[in-house]
Amino acid sequence: MSQTDFDVIVIGGGPGGYVAALRAAQLKLSVAVVEAQHLGGICLNWGCIPTKALLRASEINHLLHDLPAYGFKADGVSFDFKKIVARSRAVSKQLSAGVAHLLKKAKVPVFDGHGKLDGTLANGRRKVLVSKDGAAPTTLTAQHVILATGARARVLPGLEPDGQFIWSYKEALVPETMPKSLVVIGSGAIGTEFASFYRNMGADVTLVEVAERILPVEDVEISQLARKAFEKQGIRVLTSAKIGTLQKTATGVSIPVTVNGKADTLVAERVISAVGIVGNVEKIGLEGTKIQVDRTHVVTDALCRTGEPGVYAIGDLAGAPWLAHKASHEAVMCVEAIAGRKVHPIDPTKIPGCTYCRPQIASVGYTEAKALEAGYKVRVGRFPLIANGKALAMGEPDGLIKTVFDAQTGELLGAHMIGAEVTEMIQGYVIARTGELTEAELAETIFPHPTISESMHEAVLAAYDGALHF
Ligand SMILES: Cc1cc2nc3c(=O)[nH]c(=O)nc-3n(C[C@H](O)[C@H](O)[C@H](O)COP(=O)(O)OP(=O)(O)OC[C@H]3O[C@@H](n4cnc5c(N)ncnc54)[C@H](O)[C@@H]3O)c2cc1C
């Protein structure tokens, strides 16, 4: 008979859940994962990874159409859209299988089914019911239960995905054909990545945002530069835009929109709704427990503990920022605390955020406005990529690196980047923030030449009037 009692049961096998299980196994805790659909969660199957595989294709398409700038000539360049989508699905499948392999190697059993907390205890241990296809549920028990059920797309009334004209991120990842025109509603990371992908594949794209600027969580200068870059690429950007009731037509959708009091109608073959996500708090047995839900997220303390002893929530289920690396970091912290290790609660200003549109955007810590709001006196440095040799050599001169320092202590408060490869470079500043480095250590750091990362150094020097190349 297979084991049913564990130290830890994790419900959900995404980057929160599977990482929690792997770490628990490393720490010699007996652990099981319950997963209803696919190991790797949204991240590997419907989020981070398949979007990046599609974006890689659109980057290549962009380059192919820019060949003369590099001295090349190629006629009749075309693409097979089905193959591009199939490649993205294959990458997801490979990684999901990789997670299954890692769990097997770590001897972590995976229960295939829907997991739900049972309010009653069995000999003082938590009960989890696992159901599959209407069969009688299997009962598992454990001392600790980690809820890692993730989140799904927020659905606005009138914008319910219909599998045809109205898409959420899921439909947008597996289109049968390339739409000629597309409206993307919502300009957070997900919306801008899809706008970028479809535009760079050749679609007419309109990006609609209700807030005053696109990418509203980013530093205002970065948002402005992103808008400028998108418009230069031919993306129509509407901000402070309120949409009315969508009408379906024979060939697509028609959406009334008002921008600063001026009415217009957007007509397109497809619309992608990217207006946020909601936590999967339903049907996991929270009713009648002391676990609190705030809107659609489980409330936890700094160590991911819920109001119910022995029950934890991590990742998207536990709220913003909705990022895979935040989910995995919480997973490790939560399990290490369960194992009795000393852990450090996460400081949200040390979590990087990346958007893989063209040009890429990456940031960590305080924006200039947030730093001022928090009462800091700041010193700000800026370095444009047009003054960077590697960026010019690569043919990627558009972009900016901006640093925000505490004027009193010299601590790096935040860094904001737009341009080529910045999602790979932001980690340098994340290490600086995690180590609470000041401008002195950063100025003394030697950056390799020629790299775009030299601009990170220059943006530090610029904050102290010492930039050398601008
Ligand atoms: C289009 C898109 C692009 C994204 N790109 C990025 C990116 O580039 N970088 C980044 O950091 N983040 C990105 N994200 C966000 C990222 O995917 C999430 O933050 C991350 O997946 C959260 O991990 P999680 O483990 O909390 O939840 P999830 O990944 O959602 O995993 C939850 C798992 O729990 C399972 N489950 C749910 N309920 C039950 C139940 N009752 N019983 C059993 N199993 C259950 C689900 O099937 C799922 O596998 C993106 C998201 C989307 C939608």
TrEMBL record:
Q: PROSITE patterns recorded for this chain? A: PYRIDINE_REDOX_1
Per UniProt, subcellular location reads as: Cytoplasm
Enumerate the active-site residues. Answer: 449 (proton acceptor)
Q: Residue limits of the FAD/NAD(P)-binding domain?
A: 6-331
Recorded hits in InterPro entries, A to Z, give: Class-I_Pyr_Nuc-Dis_Oxidored, FAD/NAD-bd_sf, FAD/NAD-binding_dom, FAD/NAD-linked_Rdtase_dimer_sf, Lipoamide_DH, Pyr_nuc-diS_OxRdtase, Pyr_nucl-diS_OxRdtase_dimer, Pyr_OxRdtase_I_AS
Q: Name one GO molecular function term.
A: flavin adenine dinucleotide binding
Q: Which residues cross the membrane?
A: none
**Which cysteine pairs make disulfide bonds?**
43-48
Residues bound to NAD(+) are 186-193, 209, 276
The protein's required cofactor(s) are namely:
FAD
Q: Could you tell me which Gene3D superfamilies the record lists for this protein? A: 3.30.390.30, FAD/NAD(P)-binding domain
Enzymatic reactions = N(6)-[(R)-dihydrolipoyl]-L-lysyl-[protein] + NAD(+) = N(6)-[(R)-lipoyl]-L-lysyl-[protein] + NADH + H(+)
**GO:BP terms for this protein?**
2-oxoglutarate metabolic process
Which key words are in the record? Answer: Cytoplasm, Disulfide bond, FAD, Flavoprotein, NAD, Nucleotide-binding, Oxidoreductase, Redox-active center
By its UniProt entry, which Pfam families does this protein fall under? Pyr_redox_2 (PF07992), Pyr_redox_dim (PF02852)
Source domain of life? Bacteria
Q: What note does UniProt attach to the cofactor annotation? A: Binds 1 FAD per subunit.
| Chief location of this protein within or outside the cell | cytoplasm
Q: What is its EC number?
A: 1.8.1.4
Look up the record and report any one GO term of the cellular component aspect. cytoplasm
Other information: The active site is a redox-active disulfide bond.
- What protein family is recorded? Belongs to the class-I pyridine nucleotide-disulfide oxidoreductase family.
| The name this protein goes by in its record | Dihydrolipoyl dehydrogenase
Q: Which organism is it from?
A: Acetobacter lovaniensis
